[in-house]
Amino acid sequence: MARIPEEVLARLKAEVSVARLVQGCGVELRSQGKDLVGRCPFHEDSTPSLVVTPGKNLWNCLGACRRGGGPIDWVMAAQGVSFRLAVELLAQESPSLSTLAQASPLAAGVGPVGKSSSRKLPLLADPEVSDAELAAAVIEHYAATLVASPEALGFLGKRGIDHPEAITTFRLGFANRTLGYRLGHSATKAGGTLRSRLQGLGFVRESGHEHFTGSLVVPVFDEQGNVGEVYGRKVAEHRLRAGTPVHLYLPGPHRGVLNHAGLVAAGVDELIITESVIDALSLWCNGFRHVTACYGTSGWTPDHDTLVDRLAVKRVLVAFDADGAGDKGATELAKTLGARGVECYRVELPRGSDINEVAVGAKDARAALGRFLRKAAWIGPSRGLVPARSSFAAAVPVPVGEVVDAVAAEPTAPTELIPGAKEEPAVVDEAEQSWPAPVVPETFSPARVPEGASLGEVVVTGAGSGVELRIVVGNRSWRGAGAGPGHLL
Fold first, then answer.
1. For residue 339, what are the contacts with CB-CB under 8 A and spacing of at least 6?
2. Are 200 and 194 within 8 A, CB to CB?
3. 292 strand-pairing partners
4. Whole-angstrom distance, CA of residue 409 vs CA of residue 373
5. Cβ atoms within 10 Å of 226's Cβ, excluding its own
6. What is the spatial order of strands in the sheet that 227-234 belongs to?
7. What is the sign of the dihedral through the CA atoms of 157, 159, 162 and 167?
8. Cross-strand partners of 470
9. Is-contact 231 161, C-beta < 8 A?
């Protein structure tokens, strides 16, 4: 359950006038010293027993009911709602409380209020709208709750993905258990219809609870701009019960591609593909806009293939996690894309890390990510010769806040790999170099080799002109293909 931040409660208690709430419900107050007194509406009260103290913003009944408290307590009693809904109502109506006061049954003089079944907040959507429109309404609700949630914004800040442009572009949201307040009571026709339809779409579970409660919500749109998938990431992992999933999706097959509209608008022919949505957002926020995400290491879908074909993608940088699952997933993806004629390169991160960890742990996230992207190692398709190292267009960050106008750079001259030779970076004319300047050797710390790991290995496959050599040292690798006796190109 998502907790209501203490800052929100403190603000409402300080800013919302109890006296105005009480008067708005039809209770006449008159001055008595520093207090205001009137007849309590929650019981038969022939003499004024309700005391309001403006200086402390509190109310208290000295008569039969003995109720009291602050503005939240008054709304709970006057509206017949829960604590959470009372907070939501006050947050929606403050500082103008006229609508909230008039909506109370007390304003009509009906006496004490029981549990209410009437709708207090605007209905999320007309029960008869299309599935696409209803899903979009849910995403808009979550987007509105994110900007008012210090907890969710704090999670984005810790992950380095709190850039306002990213929040707006990707329609990031937060599920804080308030969606139900926008659906009407389940006993009403409109409320029952909306809940049933949202259950069919996967936003509400059979138990009636929100599927993404307590999660950062990232919608993934399809080619038509409709919500195809939703990714949820719990923001308070430390408070979860054992076995509670941290990562969530809507039920059913994955549809849509993250950043689809941005990639199509830019017309890119080179992509960075990450294992997770958070990693993709990390790259995007640091200016590497040619990025999308898989649904996990084996989460490449037909929608991804369709986008690759539409953009006529030539090269892909696979930025999966640097672990066994990431390595296996990258190899399988390279085979899939290689069959479509796409050259694939592996972004080799420090062992055991992912893109977001690299970004968060670096003093200059953009420079750190750029170095790893530019040094990506070729992994396929295998056609006998290793392609020359290229100046990857996707490794060129763009100023955050500007529209991407990406043009793939021309490949540089090939770098020969000779047995015993050191790896050398491709030579690029300084006048044409648009990415940040390379880090000089004295300030560059190579990826740490895990303790107990071997210093390296040499793997030789094939024979004759088809021989292939792969040298691995730490998390760095070199490849060479045979072109005759005694030669490696």
1. 381
2. no
3. 273
4. 14
5. 16
6. 173-174, 215-221, 227-234, 247-249
7. negative
8. 459, 479
9. no
- CA–centroid distance for 99 within its chain: 34
Smallest CA-to-CA distance from 219 within 149, 164, 319, 140 is with 140
CA–CA dist 60, 77 (Å, integer): 12
**Structure tokens that stand for 189 in this block:** 């026709």
Q: What share of the chain is helix, strand, coil (3-state, %, to 5)?
A: 35, 15, 50
How many angstroms separate the CA atoms of 87 and 68, rounded? Answer: 16
Which tokens belong to 362?
A: 């670096």
3-state SS class at 375: coil
For residues 355 and 322, is the Cβ–Cβ distance under 8 A? no
User: What beta strand segments (E) does 11-69 contain?
Assistant: 30-32, 35-38, 50-53, 58-61, 68-69
Sign of the C-alpha dihedral computed for residues 341, 291, 255 and 357 taken in this order: positive
Predicted TM-score of the model (pTM):
0.64
Each residue's pLDDT expressed in tens, for the chain with a length of 489 residues? 456 778 888 888 888 889 988 888 888 899 999 999 999 988 888 889 999 999 999 999 998 888 999 999 988 888 777 888 788 778 765 543 444 444 455 555 545 444 444 445 788 999 999 999 999 999 999 999 998 888 899 999 999 999 999 999 999 999 988 888 888 877 788 889 999 999 999 999 998 889 999 999 999 999 999 999 999 999 988 888 888 999 999 999 999 999 999 999 999 999 999 999 999 999 999 999 999 999 999 999 999 999 999 999 999 999 999 999 999 999 999 999 999 999 999 999 999 999 999 999 999 999 999 999 999 999 977 554 455 555 666 666 765 444 333 323 333 333 333 333 333 333 333 333 333 333 333 332 333 333 433 445 666 666 555 666 666 655 566 666 654 444 444
Chain centre distance of CA 221: 13
3-state secondary structure (DSSP) of residue 246: coil
Phi, psi of 174 (to 5 degrees): -145, 130
- Give the count of beta carbons closer than 10 Å to the beta carbon of residue 471: 17
The C-alpha atoms of residue 64 and residue 18 are separated, in whole angstroms, by 20
